[in-house]
Design a protein that fits this description.
It is flat, with a radius of gyration of 18 Å. It has helices at 12-26, 28-35, 41-62. The chain has 66 residues and is mostly helical. It has one domain (12-62).
């Protein structure tokens, strides 16, 4: 759960902007969209395999430490 504490004298617009950035960083909206509909296990496995393949290609291209 994301919590944003207002700073003294902070405008509401800036508080909302901080909340939005925190949600983006945590991937809250992406997760909500993904779980909004049922996903077949085969589709989930296919998505995870594509994700792993991209991650592997990225580590081979840039190296593990970067």
């Amino acid at each position: 759960m994301i919590k944003v504490k207002p700073r003294p004298g902070e405008p509401v617009q800036q508080l909302m902007r901080r909340l939005k950035k925190m949600c983006e960083r945590e991937g809250v909206l992406r997760e909500m969209k993904r779980t909004a509909y049922y996903e077949k296990p085969s589709d989930r496995n296919r998505r995870n395999m594509r994700k792993a393949k991209r991650r592997l290609q990225k580590t081979q291209l840039y190296g593990p430490g970067q």
